[in-house]
Amino acid sequence: MQNTKLLEEAVSYFKQEGFRRLMLGFQERYASLGHVGGSVLLSNPKEEERDALEGFLQTNCHKQKNLTVSEKAFSHALEKSKFAEVTLEEILEKVCSSPLISKKEIQVQKEVESQKHFQKLLDKFEHTRAEKWLQQILDEKCPPYLGIKKWEKEDYLDFHSQFAYVLAAINVLPIYRNQKMRLPVFAAEITGNPHAFDENKRLFRYLLYGICAILQIEYKNQCAEDRAEILYDAGILKDDISSFVTCYGIRGICEDSTSHMGMNGYIERQELQQLTLSNLSNLRRALTPNKRVYVVENPSVFRYLTEQDVFKNEAIVCGNGQLRIAVFVLLDLLVEENVTIFYAGDFDPEGLKIAQKVIDRYGNNVKLWCYNRDDFMAASVKIKSISFARVKKLQQLKHPSLKKVAEWIMDEKKLGYQENILEHYLSFKLHVSGNEDV
Known about the structure:
53% of the residues lie in helices and 12% in strands. It is built from 21 helices and 14 strands. The protein has a six-stranded mixed β-sheet with strand order 7-5-10-9-11-12, with helices on both faces. It has a two-stranded antiparallel ribbon with strand order 1-2. The chain has a two-stranded parallel sheet with strand order 3-4. Helix 17 packs parallel to helix 19 (388-395). The radius of gyration is 36 Å and the shape is elongated. The relative contact order is 0.06.
């Protein structure tokens, strides 16, 4: 009882304005050190602070510009005062109206709370793909670990409610139901809001991470086409209108096993076809007249070939520069029918990179078309220099024939373009055979 009364008197005494900054300083030192220690600097102390400290410490505090008070000096003065039976720690907890706790202890407490928050999500999605993915993120600290930890720390309630939508989504991807769904429809099904997974929203990015992890595909976020491709792999159509492929001579078989009458009509009229991702998503199969398809990078070359008699009964696809997802979806369907892809593109870093991408995706189903040295020299024009960024693209090539072209580019200081060798495509078309590049 006596000690309680003494502590109350000490608290009342040290709550004076003259001690306020010193008490807060000792509290901060405890937070840093885990115990009361070190010194507190009082810069430009007020007169009332000087008076209070001088009276308690029994030392002159009016000469120095700034005052430095050590825990050792303060505790020594405390032992000589009538508050000797009270500790500095007890005084600080009462004066500062909060228990003393170190930053390390605070961090431990926060981490314990964070683990509880994530455990609630793990429990909610127990025995699902989502639980397995989230557990992997937490165990391996792999992407998007830093992002979700920051989100949880900033606003746990918002994180819990919103990230749960991502987890729910990856448990019911349309591909599991052999379906194709437009992104707004899928978003509305999961969240009630058709815009919840819009591309400018945080949930969209985490949905991509989840899909890649669950389907074991590479996470790509470089451009809109990459993102659309990830979604398509999950059965989600991000933009099924603006992504399209221009082609010629390809027949389609619909989901109900009937022939696609529109595509048949274009073939009968020997006209070009433009298929959107929406069109392609309704096809079960894509067929060519003779188990081969000619794929060219540039629209002008594509148009030229479709006008030549030797290509009237062939299938041709226009890559149109950087390949849209619709191009790959169509080629995927063709490769499922064991169609051989004859690919031709520009002899420059960008064109060769596209060719490598096609080979990476379709392997032995691809044959490079008109990639020998004569073709390169006929197609090429002299250049003054090539930038470091473009050289780096050449260094990333893996296919032997493409690496040879890269060497020619560097040795000859030339780049080649398809439009310069149109006659080569016609001359060599009948000689395409076996497994050799021509």
